[in-house]
Amino acid sequence: MSNHNLTYFIETFGCQMNVRDSETIGGLLEQAGFSQAQDALDADVVVVNTCAVRQSAEDKVWSRLGQLAFERRDGKAPVLVLAGCMAQLPQTVERIRAKAPYVNVAVGPGHIHKIPELVLEALNRPSVKLLTAVSPSRTEARRTESTQMLPEELPRVKVPGVSAYVTIMYGCDNFCSYCIVPFVRGPQVSREPRFIMEEVEALVRQGYIEIHLLGQNVNAYGLDLDNGIGFVQLLESIDQIPGIQRIRYATSHPRDFTKEMVDTIKQSKHICEHFHLPLQSGSNRILKLMHRGYTREQYMELVYYIKEQIPGASVTTDIIVGFPGETDQDFQDTLDLLEQVRLDGAFTFIYSPRAGTAAARMANQLPRKVKSDRLQELVKVQNEITQEINNALVGTVQEVLIEEPDLRNPEYFRGRTRTNKLVVCTTKGPKPGDLVNVMIEEAGTWHLKGPLAQAGQHKSL
Ligand code: 5AD
Ligand code: SF4
Q: Are residues 226 and 341 in the same domain?
């Protein structure tokens, strides 16, 4: 198969899971003899790894696909592969057939290992319109026990960086009423611990400083396995791996985040003191309609437990505004919760109806203007809180893992604290992979800034 001198390029939309999947897609294409192109517009094969979580993510993909097909430097159409979550939606395949015939291959997240064979087929038989590899619908998948899980030990081309992603579980069993993920990524399937351990050990041997464990609901890791190993045991084993320096994980579900997990993180040496706990809404009525499985009181109790057990830990969240039927009072409940618990940061989203989900069928979808006004207000409230929390870090020394040059001041490098705050280091010298102590002198909402700490200045969380 090799020596055909063809090139590939991958563009990735969406979450960290997709970034990890794209590394595998690159590895598979290189194994099949393709080499990486410098630019998408020159490549023979272009893979667009897509996200379906909001309409805006889908819109970006459709316009990008058109550009990739028509704005070529050589005028010759590439083999265009639409991979990832959007490929699982029936309406995507219909739209390709009706309006985007320049897409040659559509592969869902559970089938990326088939990309080389499909690409070669598309190259050999250009008359075939669209090749697809997608999983059965969610209900059929349950019946046939087929899953979205990928075979073990697929090759990978690592995205450059000091941090490496490791998938610990596929899919999701939650069915939050707004969310498309369980439909496109299928039921939860945890990877066997030994495969995870081997992958982490290999990455640490290769020199990665930080390991980032991935899953749609990492706190439910292992519940589908029958070996007594859950997220707590997995974290404990990974924490013991010689040479590992920092461990992160995403994404958590507040319902499944137990106090025992907090205690494990507190006792560990390497697990970072950053908790990303998507709240979604601070109104109990909306949380119920969302099928989140916790109340605002339970959420607050978890955050207070974390802050009490691990002083200095950071907590961030995701919030959706404009869920169907959200009243002014419901929205005020969200603002009120944020003002009480004072989280370090929030990713904020306007509710986007996803066909096939329960919430998309609910009456009382809110007008665009109400949603965008609420988003603006939410961002303002949270930014003030974030700024105040970050101001309190001025004068402290933080351990920073240097990652890359700062985009705004390329002569400086930037990295992250253990609490996941972005820090620009204003002393020249540190390079990616260095763990350095920085004296924080300046704080904004999105970053902190300062020079290397002097000897004798001690670090804090
Ligand atoms: N509309 C808006 N935001 C959504 N999210 C998930 N589904 C939707 C949707 N339909 C948000 C949630 C989730 C984050 C990854 O994306 O806040 O935590
Ligand atoms: Fe987007 Fe969810 Fe798919 Fe990630 S898993 S790419 S967030 S739809």
A: no
CATH of the domain at 337: 3.30.750.200
Q: Is 52 in the pocket of ligand 2 (CB under 6 A)?
A: yes
Chosen domain end from 72, 107, 141: 141
Q: How many CA atoms lie within 13 A of 224 on its CB side?
A: 19
pTM for the full model? 0.95
Per-residue confidence band for 163, with pLDDT thresholds at 50, 70 and 90: very high
Is residue 146 predicted with pLDDT exceeding 60? no
CB of 179 closer than 6 angstroms to any ligand 1 atom: yes
For residue 185 and ligand 2, the question of a CB distance below 6 A is answered with: yes
Tell me which residue range forms the domain holding 227.
160-272
CA torsion, ordered 179, 182, 185, 187, to nearest 10 deg: 160
Kindly identify the ligand whose nearest atom is closest to the C-alpha of 178.
1
pLDDT at 409 over 90: no
Structure tokens at 199: 């992958």
Taking a C-beta distance cutoff of 8 angstroms, is the pair 146, 95 a contact? no
pLDDT > 70 fraction of the chain, expressed in percent and rounded: 97
- Report the nearest-CA residue for atom 14 of ligand 1: 318
- For residue 107, the CA-to-ligand 1 centroid distance in Å is 23
**How high does pLDDT run on average in the chain?**
95
Q: Using DSSP bridges, classify how beta strands 79-84 and 45-50 pair: parallel, antiparallel or unpaired.
A: parallel
Ligand 2 atom closest to the CA of 17, numbered from 1: 4
Mean pLDDT of 385-397: 98
pLDDT at 1 over 90: no
Which pLDDT belongs to residue 251?
96
CB-ligand 2 contact for 17 (6 Å cutoff): yes
200 C-beta neighbours (distance < 10 Å), count: 22
**pLDDT (mean) for 328-350:** 98
Would you place residue 126 in the very low, low, confident or very high pLDDT band (cuts 50, 70, 90)? confident
Residues 179 and 258 in one domain: yes
Are both 329 and 357 inside the same structural domain?
yes
Percent of residues, the chain, with pLDDT higher than 90: 89
Hey, which of 10, 85, 176, 178 would you mutate to test ligand 2's pocket, going by the most ligand atoms within 8 Å of its Cβ?
85
